[in-house]
């Protein structure tokens, strides 16, 4: 008989002894952070170096119609100075970034804080030469190379606001983001090697820029040295411009509430929105969570496998770790190239202590077999982390047993692009963990479970509902770029007086939290967040498509897959070719991550008499769960449901 796995996992004595935060300290600090947020965050504000120290701490209103969020509002600072310059005296020769290239045969780079300083200053000077200054927007569309981090920090240094667009996004998606924030400059590279293939970034950028104002310049970093088209009027060669660039640069003095970056993310309706994070509070929060959640200690080697195109890369590859003077690994490749051992080889090679990745990667690697892990020496690992979607207990247990050798606490960190940093996670030296549970709120975070219908707070344990947060924290987003109304409507209107997360959650009998997934029309595919509305609008933009409805369905590796119901225009005939064409079409409209997994031809969609598509029913059919279709009596034509069920596509 196989022994039943334990339902909770306790950290080792050794781990607890050395941890920044143990159980007693968590209780004291958490209580203090809720009872006296001003006092708690005043103290934490000292984590960063201020040019002009703040006197105000918190200035927040969650009142719908009047939402305003400010932290440390009269302080001034510079993020790049905090992530680079202030470490020079003590750890100038320490490695700041270990860069691991896509191809393991190519050499890794160890970039010291001194090197980082020089590179960031150079790039800051180049940006200024190109006319970029305080408040200007710069779009970064780059491979995972050190220059991507330099670009972020150089923007922060001159006071420009960066907006990173994941290199897997299409030219159209890139163009929308360049135009959405009126960027002055796009920083890209010739090509992005990933998994042995090359994405033609510069060519994509050209295609995007053809839809943008002529004044937008394009700064090109050489990664592969491959031949790329060149337009003298627009394109600037980084290697040439940086040659003579000054090696020092005076960082701009920024207000705590000046925007640091914009990052577009998907919502339940409309096109992606530009989430705005500001300078002081964001840095305090990213730095505190990086240190405490991962129990980062001086000298550790820390690796977050995300891409800087997502918020995880912002907070936990670049800003959090570098603010703490950490050694952070930046990986250009993918988990399965050259083979499924790559992550573990990199851990062995760089003696990684903390490893942070996504459930989708864990599931994919788990499926390849244990030998890929077991042939590597993972004895340096002390802590494992996961992020991006709920992790199923099987994957959690495999991660714990096979990767962590049963000795590494797993932090299942729940947060969002909007939150800037972790809102719920076990603290590794303080909490016993449960496979699949995000466990406890971070300092200053007061989660509440609400009844979705009444909006009333559900108190007590062993309850389920929608997840809201009672009060603000310094890392919270401040607004939607150019659309503060949309910010208020999205997050503060459904449940008045709270921040609405869009997630459902359960508080179990012990008071621990389990995220149950989105309660809106956002799906999570391989940890990538997507609005079903975006995929729908891409589909209906195709000449043959009359109408489309998109839902998520459970997928073994990706967490959720993309299931599309498509109604063709009169006279169009369904075919395998058309199916393929629509897939390619969506990939080119949004990017490969939005590739439909399933397309079902739907002669009609289930609608109410007022014309609203009943997605609940479509979700059930996609999930292959017809028993639970619920009430269909309000449908204008209930027979469409029978047709959809009869012709359900295999998933
Ligand atoms: C959504 C946010 C935050 C970094 C990556 C994703 C889901 C995130 C977890 C977790 C269960 C999670 C939520 C959330 N999510 N982390 N540990 N357990 N669900 O950021 O793209 O803004 O997506 O991802 O549904 O709302 P994002």
UniProtKB/TrEMBL annotation:
Acetylated. Deacetylation by the SIR2-homolog deacetylase activates the enzyme. Residues 26-83 form the Acetyl-coenzyme A synthetase N-terminal domain. ATP binds at residues 388-390, 412-417, 503, 518, 529. Mg(2+) binds at residues 540, 542, 545. One of its GO terms (molecular function) is AMP binding. Pfam families: ACAS_N (PF16177), AMP-binding (PF00501), AMP-binding_C (PF13193). HAMAP family: Ac_CoA_synth. This is Acetyl-coenzyme A synthetase.
């Amino acid at each position: 008989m196989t022994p039943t796995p334990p339902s909770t996992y306790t950290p080792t004595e050794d781990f607890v002894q050395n941890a920044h935060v143990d159980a007693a300290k968590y209780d004291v600090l958490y209580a203090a952070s809720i009872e006296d947020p001003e006092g708690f965050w005043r103290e934490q504000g000292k984590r960063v170096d201020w040019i002009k120290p703040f006197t105000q701490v918190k200035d927040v209103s969650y009142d719908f119609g009047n939402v305003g969020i400010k932290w440390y509002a009269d302080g001034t600072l510079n993020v790049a100075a905090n992530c680079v310059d202030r470490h020079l005296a003590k750890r100038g020769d320490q490695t700041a970034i270990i860069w691991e290239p896509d191809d393991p045969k190519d050499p890794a780079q160890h970039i010291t804080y001194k090197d980082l300083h020089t590179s960031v200053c150079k790039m800051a000077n180049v940006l200024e030469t190109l006319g970029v200054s305080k408040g200007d927007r710069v779009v970064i569309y780059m491979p995972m190379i050190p220059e991507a981090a330099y670009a972020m920090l150089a923007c922060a240094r001159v006071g420009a606001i960066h907006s990173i667009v994941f290199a897997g996004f299409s030219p159209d998606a890139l163009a929308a983001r360049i135009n959405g924030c009126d960027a002055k400059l796009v920083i890209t590279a010739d090509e992005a090697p990933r998994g042995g293939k090359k994405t033609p970034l510069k060519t994509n950028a050209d295609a995007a820029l053809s839809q943008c104002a002529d004044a937008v310049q394009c700064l090109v970093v050489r990664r592969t040295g491959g031949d790329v088209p060149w337009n003298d009027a627009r394109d600037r060669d980084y290697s040439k411009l940086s040659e003579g660039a000054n090696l020092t640069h005076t960082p701009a003095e920024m207000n705590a509430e000046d925007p640091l970056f914009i990052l577009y993310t998907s919502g339940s309706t409309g096109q992606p929105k530009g989430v705005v994070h500001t300078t002081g509070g964001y840095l305090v929060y990213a730095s505190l969570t990086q240190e405490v959640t991962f129990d980062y200690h001086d000298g550790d080697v820390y690796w977050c496998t995300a891409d800087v195109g997502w918020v995880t890369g912002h907070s936990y590859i670049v800003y959090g770790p570098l603010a703490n003077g950490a050694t952070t690994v930046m990986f250009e490749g993918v988990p399965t190239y050259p083979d499924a051992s790559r992550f573990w080889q990199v851990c062995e090679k760089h003696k990684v202590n903390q490893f942070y990745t996504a459930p989708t990667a864990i599931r994919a690697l788990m499926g390849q077999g244990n030998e890929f892990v077991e042939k590597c020496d993972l004895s340096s690992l002390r802590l494992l982390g996961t992020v991006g979607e709920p992790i199923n207990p099987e994957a959690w247990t495999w991660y714990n047993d096979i990767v962590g050798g049963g000795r590494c606490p797993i932090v299942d960190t729940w947060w969002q692009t909007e939150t800037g940093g972790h809102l719920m996670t076990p603290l590794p030296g303080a909490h016993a963990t449960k496979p699949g549970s995000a466990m406890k709120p971070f300092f200053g975070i007061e989660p509440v479970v609400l009844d979705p219908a009444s909006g009333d707070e559900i108190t007590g344990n062993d309850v389920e509902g929608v997840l809201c947060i009672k009060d603000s924290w310094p890392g919270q987003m401040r607004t939607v770029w150019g659309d503060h109304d949309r910010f208020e409507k999205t997050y503060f209107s459904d449940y008045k007086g709270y921040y609405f997360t869009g997630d459902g959650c359960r508080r179990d009998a012990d008071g621990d939290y389990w995220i149950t997934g989105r309660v809106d029309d956002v799906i999570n595919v391989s940890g990538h967040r997507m609005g079903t509305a975006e995929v729908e609008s891409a589909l209906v933009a195709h000449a043959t498509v009359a109408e489309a409805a998109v839902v998520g369905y459970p997928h073994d590796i990706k967490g959720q897959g993309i299931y599309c119901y498509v109604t063709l225009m009169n006279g169009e005939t369904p075919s395998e070719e058309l199916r393929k064409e629509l897939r390619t079409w969506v990939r080119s409209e949004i990017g490969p991550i939005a590739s439909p997994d399933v397309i079902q031809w739907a002669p009609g969609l289930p609608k109410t008499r007022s014309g609203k598509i009943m997605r609940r029913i479509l979700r059930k059919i996609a999930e292959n769960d017809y028993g639970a279709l619920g009430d269909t009596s309000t449908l204008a034509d209930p027979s469409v449901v029978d047709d959809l069920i009869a012709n359900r596509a295999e998933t």
